[in-house]
Amino acid sequence: MDTDTQSGAADATAYDVIVIGAGPVGENVADRAVRGGLKALVVEKELVGGECSYWACIPSKALLRSGSALRAARAVPGAREAATGDLDVSAVLARRDSYVSDWSDEGQVKWLSGAGIDLVRGHARLTGEREVTVGDTTYAARVAVVVATGSAALLPDIPGLADASPWTSREATAVKSIPESITIIGGGVVAVEIATAYTDLGAKVTLLVRSRVLGGFEEFAGKAVADALRSRGAEVILGTSPSSVNRDAAGRVAVSLDDGRVVESAELLVATGRVPRTDDVGLEVAGLEPGSWIDVDDTMLVRGSDWLYAAGDVNHRALLTHQGKYQARAAGDAIAARAAGRALDDGPWGTHAATADHVAVPQLVYSDPEVAAVGLTSAAAEKQGLRVRSVDVPIGKVSGASLHAEGYEGTARMVVDEERGVIVGFTMVGPDVGELLHSATIAVVGEVPLSRLWHAVPSFPTMSELWLRLLEAYGRPE
User: Fold this and answer.
1) Least C-beta-crowded within 10 Å: which of 121, 163, 170, 474?
2) Where is the secretion signal located (predicted)?
3) Which domains are seen in the chain, by residue range?
4) How many CB atoms are closer than 10 A to CB 454?
5) Is the link from the previous residue into 461 a cis peptide, with omega within 30 of 0?
């Protein structure tokens, strides 16, 4: 075991808080605890910075940005004529490498040290109440232990799949060269983002989707993305499932479908969901099932425990980095407050409560076109028993959008709770709609009445005029 402890405390094994996992969530829990006056240790068996920094959010967006920028240039006369070539794939990959620091966590380790957080490298397991063992050393936590180990790609039980050495998102984002063709099993966010990036980078992409693309979003969002992928040469096959997989001696992969078709490609990516990384962290010490998602309250305290917390993907509330960091802030502050005997503000929208996990989770899909959403879809709102009205507006009719890109195409949907007169869901599809997402998030979180939103005047000529068009379509109160 490589121990890398950075502070010189008298008892190197005693801490107030021990965090298992040094991804963005674990880092933020520890940081908030330290800011609250506690002594914190994080334990990490891989790279400090976690999945997001090296194999997910950061490298995938680096791979996607070059293609997005080129499409944006080609959508504006004048710039279009200057954009005469294709992407330089080696330059794109080199830029990706720079953003992941060539898979070195030296900078992240320095940040921990500067924040006053100790680091131990190795595999951590709970071995008792408030007790974590790494290698031959056992560490004691006076106040709390936090599990922030994240999630891993789910490999479905398809005959031949494991033997075919399929890629997960890790291999797809860390690739050293782009394969000439790739088959992607799945239709969710990872699947469409990799499909978008690889199409930009010259690969022949086939997407195998059991039901519909981006099934958790409004249906028009997935349709727009699927149509765009097809228009750029990708094959999107809906309503099918793989029945078996085989990789031949030459290295090519054949996926047999349940309708009798066979899809062949150089590589295979599986993007069918996530599983918690909790199978070997000693959850049984706290009476929990190893390998399970961990149930927590809004302060991230494990239900039935007074010392064990779980933040980020492992609690299955919202498998998104920004939402995990939000949970981390609530958890770290709650741990510090409890340790100091201060009153806990854990009611709805309280300082120590991750309330937004339930009602206002923003998500941006970096596909072509982008998909940005927060809150409930129209179907989900109706399922909850809300009396809602949905209003759709073509974004291209907004003057700022038509200036932004020639022939701008996109759609925005506002889902309104009719009884309260507030927005409970918002979905946008179109180029660069991600830049409008936070205003929608504020409206949903703040439960801003539509009558008040009429007084939030959008600047002209910006894409934010979309808000006015939606309000006009909904109708002003008498």
Assistant:
1) 163
2) none
3) 3-49+105-152+276-356 (3.50.50.60), 162-272 (3.50.50.60), 369-474 (3.30.390.30)
4) 14
5) yes
In order of 270, 360, 397, the CA distances from 323 in angstroms are: 24, 10, 32
Pairing of strands 14-20, 40-44: parallel
Assigned token pair, 194: 């990799």
Please spell the DSSP secondary structure of 230-267, one letter per residue: HHTT-EEEES--EEEEEE-TTS-EEEEETTS-EEEESE
Binding-site residues from annotation for FAD = 61, 149-151, 313
3-state secondary structure of 370: strand
Going by the annotation, the residues of the binding site for NAD(+) are: 186-193, 273
Give the residue ranges of the annotated binding site: 61, 149-151, 186-193, 273, 313
Contact 42, 19 (CB under 8 A): yes
> What is the SS3 assignment for 85-151?
CCCCHHHHHHHHHHHCHHHCCHHHHHHHHHCCCEEEECCEEEEECCEEEECCEEEEEEEEEEECCCE
Residue 281 CA to residue 272 CA, distance in Å, equals 24
H or E, element range at 93: helix 89-99
Which pTM value belongs to this model?
0.94
**Binning pLDDT at 50, 70 and 90, where does residue 7 land?**
very low
CA atoms within 13 A on the CB side of 299: 22
Please tell me the distance from the alpha carbon of residue 29 to that of residue 324, in angstroms, as a whole number.
10
What digits encode the pLDDT tens for the residues 229-267? 999 999 999 999 999 999 999 999 999 999 999 999 999
CA nearest 45: which of 20, 18, 13, 15?
20
Residue with tokens 């028993």: 385
Handedness of CA 348, 349, 353, 359 (dihedral sign): positive
pLDDT tens-place string over residues 355-401? 999 999 999 999 999 999 999 999 999 999 999 999 999 999 999 99
* Residues contacting residue 55 through CB under 8 Å, at least 6 positions apart: 169, 170, 173, 174
Q: What are phi and psi of 253, to 5 degrees?
A: -110, 135
